[in-house]
Write a structure and sequence with these properties.
The chain is α/β, with parallel strands linked by helices. Helix content is about 30%, strand content about 20%. Bound molecules: 2'-O-acetyl adenosine-5-diphosphoribose (OAD).
């Protein structure tokens, strides 16, 4: 039996759009409604922790009410034929709920919170709210387990190692505006097939080249599945 090819996928909020989750920078996206620095930075949390906790409480509640879509499902199905590693900028859990077994979260996870004082104390809260006054076992305020702007991205080293081993690399549903995630595509071996799925024009960093599939996530993944079936 031949070894499965390694398919590495970098996903962004666009893959969850058809599940009903808002993207950030599109018209009607979250960053039109909220200021990044207010709800997604350590300074914002310091200035108004209740606003920040509430912002993530809303996102977490909504996550419990939505379902994975075709794009998440096709990626999970591809594990039958490929060694699939998902690297996601998303803080939702829709890849996991669709059945993907290897998901690396670059920007944290909505269903987890952690101690403000002891970052290794991480707790699963599911879809429940976390409020001002909710504390870790050592008595310190809990905060969302999210990587905010200005904070380090602890999973990036592992993500780079995965991308370096890819036989095929796919980018889906991300504007490639946020670093270091946007630079991951520069770490692939040369001459592997690289695809980018997005219904809109993406400002691709100059150090990266892709075959563009200009479709929404669900339709784009259907097309990619056909293309991949010929690459094995
Ligand atoms: P953006 O909002 O920047 O980009 C969303 C991308 O999804 C755009 O390129 C859209 O064209 C595309 N899109 C929209 N609808 C789609 C659909 N139905 N199918 C496929 N693609 C679609 O979101 P991200 O690139 O994910 O970080 O943003 C990156 C990071 O910035 C996020 O992880 C978040 C944000 O601030 C943090 O909060 C730390």
């Amino acid at each position: 039996m031949s070894k499965k090819m390694k398919l590495v996928v970098l996903s962004g909020s666009g893959i969850s759009a058809e599940s009903g989750i808002k993207t950030f920078r599109d018209t009607g996206g979250l960053w039109e409604e909220y200021k990044i620095e207010d709800v997604a930075s350590p300074e914002g949390f310091e200035a108004n922790p209740k606003l920040v906790l509430d912002f993530y409480n809303q996102r977490r509640k909504q996550l419990g009410e939505v379902q994975p879509n075709d794009a998440h499902r096709i990626l999970a199905e591809l594990e039958q034929d490929f060694n699939v590693q998902i690297i996601t900028q998303n803080v939702d859990n829709l890849h996991e709920r669709a059945g993907s077994s290897k998901v690396l979260h670059l920007h944290g996870e909505l269903t987890k919170v952690r101690s403000t004082k002891h970052p290794h104390l991480v707790y699963n809260v599911g879809y429940k709210p976390v409020n001002w006054g909710d504390k870790c076992e050592k008595g310190h305020q809990l905060r969302p387990h999210i990587v905010w702007f200005g904070e380090a991205v602890p999973a990036i080293e592992q993500a780079i190692l995965e991308v370096q081993k890819a036989d095929i690399f796919v980018v889906i549903g991300t504007s490639l505006n946020v670093y270091p995630a946007a630079n991951l595509g520069a770490y692939t071996k040369t001459d592997i097939p690289k695809f980018l799925i997005d219904p809109n024009n993406v400002n691709i960093p100059q150090n990266q080249k892709y075959t563009i599939i200009q479709k929404t996530a669900g339709e784009g993944m259907k097309e990619l599945k056909q293309i991949l079936s010929k690459l094995q």
